[in-house]
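Extended Data, panel c. Modelled sequence:
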Amino acid sequence: MSPSGGGPLTRVGSLAMMLVVTSISGCALFGLSWDRVPTPAARVVVSDGWLAMGTFFEVEFRVRPDEVEEAKAFLEWARHEIVRLEKIYSRHDPDSELSALNRDLDRADILLRSARVGSELEDVLFSSIEVWESSGGAFDVTVGPLIDVFTRAAQRGAWPPVEELRRAKRRIGSGRLLMPGDGELGITAQGMRIDLDGISKGAVLDRLRARLSAELPGVPALLSFGESSIIALGDPEQTEGDRDGGWLLEILSRDPQRSRLGTIRLRDRALSVSSSLGSLREIAGQTISHVVDPRTGTAVEGTVEAVVVADRAAIADGWSTALLVLGAERNAIRLVEKAGLEATAFESTGRIAFSEGWDALTAAAER
């Protein structure tokens, strides 16, 4: 399989997943071999992967021989669909729908009128506002101006002035995006900027899952974006009568002081992993994270890693970022549980917090 794409591979064998490698006998997050993964009789592996959305997208199916062509057709459709959706969600593409919206948000007269958005962008914005509300504002797709402040501070080597932080704070807040529906977006703050990087990959996975479930219902599959987002469908071993089967996922840490975050079994759900170690900066001799708390305007201190399981990948993505801000606190986990999710969070101090149902996921992995 070439990173640049190519045709889908059909085989009974192995696939190295960038995000998660799964099996009953052994697995790992961020890449291992599938060589020990048994494939049920009369099932073959159809897989492919290519560069997409600034990372590597991979998918693998376990299909019957008569479903191989349908699986290949899905992969071809997915290749074009991801490109199409990126033209909607990407802030890096000046011609994307999101970039056009951000230019609109910077107009002096934006407070006097409504902005129009397409249905697919509207859906992602609704999902982002859902996570913003349920996390108490810890996840916010409008936090960009605050991140810019700390980026400039790191370049200067000096902490940002309080007034600069205050000006940036006045430009953020998902609560200032009013969405009555039907593609209409009301704005209550001029100069806002929306960044969907923390949720758009999950939104794409949700779109692919919906199509896959309609065209190949019941087919075991893994769909992943790089080292952050995955959807696991069905049971790769197709054990007769086993309703508790699924993909076994070992989650490895990015923290050199911690080798792994745990092992869980996942079926028909999404998983997202986030780490405050993604991009570190130094200001006046102090190392800070790239993650900024949109509620307070401060950068997250220390190492925080979060793993979230949800029914929708977009929600898992948003919440794994929110937990980097909230930390491994019991109050944060209460918010997770109230949102109907499962999660665990780790801090460099050694503190660990997890939702009430997390033990069931890890216990299932031991069966």
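The longest helix spans residues 68-89. This feature is highlighted in the accompanying rendering.
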